Amino acid sequence: MGPAGRIGPTGDGPFAWPPAPIRTERLVLRESEARDRAAFVELNSSPLVGTYLGGPQPRSELERTVPEVPGRRPGFFVVELDGAMIGTIQLDARDPERPGYRRPEAGERELGYLFLPQAWGHGYAVEACTAALGWFAEVLPGEPVVLCTQTANDRSMRLAAKLGFTEVERYEEWGAEQWFGVRSACPAGTRPARP
Question: Is 92:13 a contact under the CB 8 Å cutoff?
Fold first, then answer.
C-alpha cells in the first residue's frame, strides 16, 4: 500500500487513498507500483502520446527524474491489461489560475488520461475512464468533473463525448484552441452507460 491521502474538491475530501483496485471487464485500475516505471517512461517519451501535449519528454531526462514508483498520488490510477501498464488516468484538482469553467463555491477535478499507442483503438480508454468516473461519483456524489483537450485531438474529443462531457467553452492556451467540458456527476452507485 502507498501513502494514504485525501482527495476531494478542495484536496481534503472525505475518503482515503488509495482505493482497492477497480476491476472492469478487461482492465484493472490501481495505484502505481515500481514495476510501472519503464512503461511510464515509454508513455511520457512517446512522440505519438505527446502530439497534443507539447511534444514528448526526453527519455534521458525521464530515466533520470522519474521516481522509483511514478505517479504515486491521490487521484492517479495505473491502467493495467493482462498484468502490464497500458496507460494512466488522473483525477487531479484543476488549477484555479487556468482558463475555463469554475464553480465559485469549490474546486473541480479534471480528468486526464494517457495510453500507450499500442493500446489505442480497442476501447480501453472508454472502459477505464468510465470506471474511474463511476468510482469518483460513488466517493464524491454530486461533484462534477471537467475535461480539457485540444480541439485538434480528434480521439480525445470523441472520448469526451462518449464519456458524457458537454462543452462549456473554447479558448486559446499553449498556442492551440482548447475544448473545455463538464460532466455532471452520476448519482452514487450508478455508472455512465457504456457506448
Answer: no
Residue recorded with cell 488516468: 89
Per-residue pLDDT of the chain (195 residues; tens, 9 = 90+): 333 444 444 444 556 788 999 999 999 999 999 999 999 999 999 999 999 888 889 999 999 999 999 988 889 999 999 999 999 999 988 877 777 666 655 668 899 999 999 999 999 999 999 999 999 999 888 888 999 999 999 999 999 999 999 999 999 987 899 999 998 654 444 444 333
Count the Cβ atoms, other than its own, within 10 Å of residue 39.
Answer: 19
Buried residues in 64-100 as b, exposed as e (16+ CB within 10 A):
eebeebbbbbbbbbbbbbeeebbbbbbbbbbeeeeeb
Residue 190 and residue 137 in contact, taking contact as beta carbons nearer than 8 Å: yes
Contact between 106 and 72 (Cβ < 8 Å): no
For the question of whether the overall pTM of this predicted structure is more than 0.90, the answer is no
163 in Cβ contact with 184 (< 8 Å): no
